[in-house]
Design a protein that fits this description.
CATH topology of the largest domain: Rossmann fold
Number of helices: 12
Largest sheet: 6 strands, mixed
Order of helices and strands: EEEHEEHEHHHHEHEHEEHHHH
Strand order of the largest sheet: 6-7-8-3-9-10
Structural class: alpha/beta
Helix content: 40-55%
Bound molecules: adenosine-5'-triphosphate
Distance between the termini: 46 Å
């Protein structure tokens, strides 16, 4: 993988250091009676890698979809570099936000290079007639696009496979290709939805390096991931979504040390947990049965032939 950012300089879409790139305020998304995202505020600044974590169904992907114009939030607004984002995904890409998907979405029967070229369409100025007539302007633009696409393939370590069909790439390389295609739109902010899903530890480590290299090119990154080691190694800041709401936000140490986050992942007991009273009743009944076991009325039936086994069962059931 070529991730030597010292020689590559900033990406064309790079943003001004220290500025707020993404500003989402009060984002709410309802599907009928279900509120998948509720009043979420989140900012991403230039030069930052921000993580978005939360248990399954917490609303992470829905929030991404609200940021990228796939969904129009029921309430709230999203600004990119100070401008309100249009509610159309191709316009959001043109504005400077690119994304990858949880389920890889490549053109399987196109080559690796062609997939990246498709990602460049928002940056290609040549219009319809130029493409049809294939004049000198078109050829110049096409050459420049190919050169940039090859540069990106080199950056993610896939230059040698430019002519391979996307469908023939191993899974980890397909994920890299998705990232190269997203970078082809020259974004200032890259959203990654579970970039290491299905990867082995070596591939995950390489993806971590790749994301650092992308950040070093001046592109801010917002990443959803279930792999906590990956998130806490990588991110400057982490926000935790639980049941559609932002529960905690802070640096890795703050989030890791917050008991509410652990509780949310383990499944926090409800207040006045109704199960607790029931469990106490069962325990009392068991204790009562134990007291009467082995009495003359029931001489041959020990209540608990192996108390240690009983304890084991309780722990398994918990
Ligand atoms: N298009 C939709 N229509 C109706 N409900 C939806 C839709 N998309 C998501 N949901 C619901 O919204 C909630 C949040 O889902 P979402 O996929 O955003 O969660 P997530 O945090 O990304 O989960 P995971 O980590 O499993 O990918 C879930 O209850 C889901 O079933």
């Amino acid at each position: 993988m070529t991730t030597d950012t010292t020689t590559q300089g900033n990406a064309p879409g790079a943003t001004t250091p220290g500025r707020t790139v993404l500003d989402a305020r009060g984002v709410t998304m309802r599907f009928g009676g279900l509120t998948a995202v509720r009043g979420v505020d989140l900012t991403v600044n230039s030069g930052e890698i921000v993580g978005l974590i939360g248990p399954n169904g917490a609303g992470k992907t829905t929030f991404f979809n609200c940021l990228t114009g796939l969904y129009t939030p029921t309430e709230g607004e999203v600004r990119y570099q100070g401008q309100l984002l249009p509610p159309k995904s191709f316009k959001v890409t043109a504005a400077g936000i690119a994304r990858t998907f949880q389920n890889i979405r490549l053109f399987a029967n196109m080559t690796v290079l062609e997939n990246v070229l498709v990602g460049r369409h928002t940056r290609t100025k040549e219009g319809f007639w130029s493409a049809v007539l294939r004049g000198p302007g078109f050829h110049r633009a096409e050459k420049a696009s190919r050169a940039r696409a090859m540069e990106l393939l080199d950056f993610v370590g896939l230059a040698a496979k430019a002519d391979h069909l996307a469908r023939n790439l191993p899974y980890g390389e397909q994920r890299k290709l998705e990232i190269a295609r997203a970078l082809a739109s020259e974004p200032g902010l890259l959203l990654l939805d579970e970039p290491t899903a299905g990867m082995n530890p070596q591939e995950t480590r390489a993806t971590e390096e790749l994301v650092f290299a992308i950040r070093d090119q001046g592109i801010a990154v917002l990443v959803i991931e279930h792999d906590m080691r990956f998130i806490f190694n990588l991110c400057d800041r982490v926000a935790v979504l639980v049941q559609g709401e932002k529960l905690v936000e802070g640096d890795s140490a703050t989030v890791q040390g917050d008991d509410r986050v652990v509780a949310a992942y383990l499944g926090e007991p409800l207040d006045n947990d109704p199960g607790a009273a029931e469990a106490a009743e069962v325990e009392a009944a068991e204790a009562h049965a134990g007291t009467h076991a082995g009495t003359p009325a029931d001489p041959g039936t020990p209540a608990d032939p192996d108390p240690a086994a009983g304890q084991q069962n309780k722990e398994t059931d918990r």
